[in-house]
Structure formats: C-alpha cells, structure tokens
Design brief:
By secondary structure, this protein is α+β, with helices and mostly antiparallel strands. It is 24% helix and 25% strand.
Length: 769
Amino acid sequence: MSNEAGIATTAAEPAPAPEPLPHGIGASLPHADARAKTEGTFPYAADLWAEGLLWAAVLRSPHAHARIVSIDTSHAREMPGVRAVVTHEDVPGTPRHGRGVPDRPVFASEVVRHHGEPIAAVAADHPDTARMAAAAVIVEYEVLDPVTDPEQAFEAEPLHPDGNLIRHIPLHHGDPEAVGEVVVEGLYRIGRQDPAPIGAEAGLAVPRPDGGVELYLASTDPHADRNTAAACYGLSPDQVKIVVTGVPGATADREDQGFQLPLGLLALRTGCPVKLTATREESFLGHAHRHPTLLRYRHHADGEGRLVKVEAQILLDAGAYADTSAESLAAAVSFACGPYVVPNAFIEGWAVRTNNPPSGHVRGEGAMQVCAAYEAQMDKLAKKLGLDPAELRLQNVLATGDVLPIGQTVSCPAPVAELLQAVRDFPLPALPKDTPEDEWLLPGGPEGAGEPGAVRRGVGYGLGMVHMLGAEGADEVSTATVKVHDGIATVLCAAVETGQGFTTLARQIVQETLGIEEVHVAPVDTDQPPAGAGCRGRHTWVSGGAVERAAKMVRTQLLQPLAHKFGMSTELLQITDGKITSYDGVLSTTVTEAMEGKELWATAQCRPHPTEPLNAAGQGDAFVGLAFCAIRAVVDVDIELGSVRVVELAVAQDVGRVLNPAQLTARIEAGVTQGVGIALTENLRTPRGLVRHPDLTGYALPTALDAPDIRIVKLVEERDVVAPFGAKSVSAVPVVTAPAAIASAVRAATGRPVNRLPIRPQAAVVTAQ
C-alpha cells in the first residue's frame, strides 16, 4: 500500500524516522528567515502600510557648497494633496545630529556643505504629489567654490563652525633616529566606496496619542537612533520608539539619519502615519561612504629584510561632516604597519572636512586603506632586496606577545605566520589553455578584445588585521533575556540581524545550553535594553555573550531542584541532546519532563574588559581583540588592455572557533567578493563634490561573473580566552585583505607599481620597451 505522500511502505517495514535537524554550537543551522527571503515574502521596511498613510519626499541640495539666500515653500504648501512642508524652522529640538559628533543639521539653513544635503521635506496623500511638491520648494542659492581636495582643507576657509580638522593623531613609537639599510617609499590613493545596500532606505513613522512617535526602520543601532530622534524632535526618549523592520543587508551603518529624522517630523506635524521610500539616487546621496584616503609611506629594513622603521602620513577625507571619522582614523593609524613587528614607527594621521559626500563606518574602515598601502610597501621591499614576497612577510609577521606600534601587547591568538604559510603552500590553479573554448577565461570574457598572447599571470599576497568591538574606551555592553515556557525558548535582545547571522547564533547558544530545540528570537525594538550597533561582528561577542550568560542562568534554575533532590551540585549534571544526566548515571530525565509546569527566565549582560583612548603620542591599550587573515591572489592581466581577471583567492583566517560552519564560510566568501569590487570596480566619482552616476549602473558592483574561485584553505581555531565561545568576527578582515592581495598580484604580473584602488586599466598596461 502507499501512504498519503505516495511513498511505498509495509507494516513490516515502517518508514524511517526523519533525521534530526542540526542544532547547537558547531552545527550549520540555517537562517530562520532564509526561506521567506528567497521566496520574496520577508517583510522589509518598504513593504509597510498603515491606515491613513501619507507619503514623504525630501528636497536635497543640487550643489556641493552654497549659501542659502532664501527658501520659499508657499507653492508647495498650496498644492492639492500636500499636508505638510518642513524645513530647519520646524525642528523643535536639537538642530544637529551625527553618529560620532553631532555636527550635521537636520535641514540645511544657511549653508549646504555637500551634494544631496536635505533642505526640506514634504508629506502628501500620494507619492507623486510629494515628489512634485518637494520640487516646487524654491531655494535661492549663492553657489560657492567647493573644497574637494582634502590636502587643501588645511588652508581653506572653515567649512563648518567646528573647523576643517576633525582629528589629528601623531603616533610615536621607538627611536626616531633609526635608519634601515634599505628604504622604499610610496604614495597611495584609495577611492570612495559605497556600501550599496541591497535595498534603499525606507521607513514608516506613526504618531502616538501621548505626543510621541514610533519609527519603523531598518536601523542597525536602534537605541542610538532613538536618542538622536528624540533630541531633534524635542521629546524625551520614552516618547520615541523604534521598531526594527526587516534589514535588507548591511555592511555599514544601515540607515541614514538624515532620512529618518524628517520622517518623524512629518508624522508629528500631520498627526498621520508617513512613509518614505528613498530612490537609489537618494540612497547614494544620503548615507555615509568609505573614506577616500591619501597615504605616504617610507619603510626601512636591514639587509636581510627585517623591518627597522615605518614612517607614514595618512589623510582621511571625511566629507562634509565628522560622523565616525575619528574612530576610522584611530584604526588607520593603529594598524598602519599591519600585522608585522615594527620596532620603530612614526605615523601622522588626519581626518578633515571637505565638501565631498560624508564618509563614515563601512566594513573594515581605516584598516582596509592602510592594508593596501603597507602591503604595496612590502612588495617594493621584496623587489629591492631580491627576496620572495612571501618569505619577506614571514620574516616580519606578528605573533602573540608582540607589541603593536600603539604600545599594546597582542594578547589574543595571532597565528599570522601559520595563515601565510597555508596560502603560500596551497597548490596554484592551472594555467588557462590557449584554445577557443576557453576564451571565457581571458580578462574581458568571451567577447573581449584581448589576445591570449598578451595575458600575464601574477601571484600576490595580502596580510590584514582588524579590531573587534569598539575602541578607545567605548562601552561595549549588551543585554539579553532568555525565557522558557512549555518547552519553547524565547530570546529577547536588541541586537539587529543585518545578515551577520546573530539570530541563528542566538538559537544555537540556547539549544546548546538548555537542550531545547525550538528557540525563537523576538523582534527588536527600543523597549528592550540596548545592545549597541551591529558592526565589526560585535554581536557575536557581546550579544552572543549576553545570551549565553542568560541561558546559563536559566540552566541553573532548571537543574537546581534536581541537584538538590539527589544531593549533588548542578556542576555534576549535564544537558546533552535534550536529556539531563548526572555524572554517575543515577539521574536521567529529559529537559521537557524537568520543565513541565515551569516558566523560567533570566536577564544578563556582557561587557568586555575596558579599553583606553590613544594618548598624545598615539599610545594606549585601545582594542579588545584582533582578527587576522592571509590571502593569496592569482590574477590574469591583459597587459595591452589593462583588463584584470581574478582567477583565484586562497584564504586562511584566524576565526577563534567555528560556531556555524556554513554561515562562517558564506561570510568569508562575501567579504572576499566585496574586496574584489574595492580592488577593481567600485569607485563613487564626485567631480567638484557632485556625485556622478548615483545608481547601480554607474557604480560598478562585482557580479557573479566577476567573483573568482575562493578557496578557504585553512581556518585556525585557536580560541580567544576572553571572548565568549572563543570566537572572532570573520566578515571584515577578508574585505580588508583581498584588495591588497589583488593589487599585489597585478604588480607581480605587470611590474607596474599599482598605487591606487580601484585599479585603473592604465595602471596595468605594460608598454613595449
């Protein structure tokens, strides 16, 4: 006979029991929302709706720098269907905001300082009406010459009341008179990259009866955004609530606060729900980008290749406002020498305001820019000394116990030599064949104009490092609650799932600790205690640590009655696969039986050990933990056309402990692919401060055809004893390292210096001698 599913069975041969689902730490547990996202049913912010909904639009400056002579909103207000128009005059509270430094106005009033700065916002009964009304706001400008070169910012007239210099860090370490036998110098430029989130910003604001407002946003730091919004609206924080909606991916601070704030103002003004969905152009103009950076380096080494001294000047273009530029500069200066032992280092770093688009937190900020420069310097040293580039690096790599140029001892695992040896010794990919059917292997693809005889292969290396959590005294704390009732566990934690896999990790932690398979993670809002920003993999550490502590407290509550009954301590009981057993086998029961009729819960915090700001000489224990990565890049370059094809990237990474193998692999591969874009294609061009081609046609992201073979050749699981589970963040360090490795490989193929990212075709062309 057959069952309802149409599978043949007999009474003598019952159908096999289904395989148990993976669970707990170390299992490749799938994302809870993976199916909804792939089927298109996942609720993003752009999908929100409310009764009586109004639509918003924002008027943005068409100039990079101008004085506002007048703003006339009368025509917009008179348009049928328009319910409200707000400008700087309608901001009832603090008129400035900003993630790092509150120096940015909600609406420009006297001066616009960058292309796309908000001037006014409109609410209307139809999105087209809102857009037309925003366009009907008449602004008279006196256009000013923009300051777009960060080197000119030192001498230019102040662009902001706070001045043009945001931060200066002089790092002095060792003997300034030290000199090496061999000296190499270089000047390097890193372009502006956009985080290019999958979905543009969108949100819904709903007024509350108490005079407050609720904001439904894809925020990555809801409590900080709530506090900013409350201050600008002239409300107390408990009158503003942020509910985090589905976040469509984030590799930076996901939401532009200049987008959020007008939304709530319009809802408060109209008394109606207001929705705003930004266009891709508005998204490019509004949110922060990676800092364009100018770097000057001088490396000293002895005759055998050991580093003696590194001198560097690092200039970050912060754009019009400070944002998190001070933090980015600290990372750039601190890691300016890379994961190498440098007994003498003298680094000068500056972050300055210009009239370019604002820069801020983007994955690997500061560390990515300097990695490209110091690895180029290591290639130059190897060439001048006649040494193998990998061997030169191996002579100088950091290890646990070494001292960074900021004076901080590397106390965490630092298996840099092991990582480099792993990628160096991994077999190289086969050379492409000169046959018609393999033309797709050539740079430019099957329709490219290249000739096989002009293709040169290059092999290069990159070693990168990043810090985890905040730095320089940042209070990295997170709070979580774990509740268990009727055999189901619920986790409440304000850690936003941005694609890094926190909700999956939280489920695994509870499954591992309590032996309960069904675990739910509650939606995030600001009624929960704060967990901090979703960046640098910090939620794996602080929020995962808080969940683990809360789950262990519930575990103790569960086991104490049983331990007391049998006259033993809870430490002698263990939970495995949903069963509670004692060390001697006397006690054996299931978690379900032990939980019957009980409701248990606990709240816990995780706060890593404190750090300190860098002092006047750039010294201090500024970082909690470090992560390292080695990448070997293999590229094919058409030396006539300058086109580059990344053939393979071999990756070895120090991960501490693998918590979810599938998720970890995906994060590394995604980070490496992002690095390919930084190396070859991604450059947001801003001539005279104006964003050129602010769309995904003009901004060239790598596609599936651009992604190379990515070989994860080694994952070093040497646990960091101060981190929960011993795990390290994994996403940022391959982003930092891959561009440097690719540039190194292009140098090897062409013999050209390659001192700019992204790599321009002319930089890879080899002219006939």
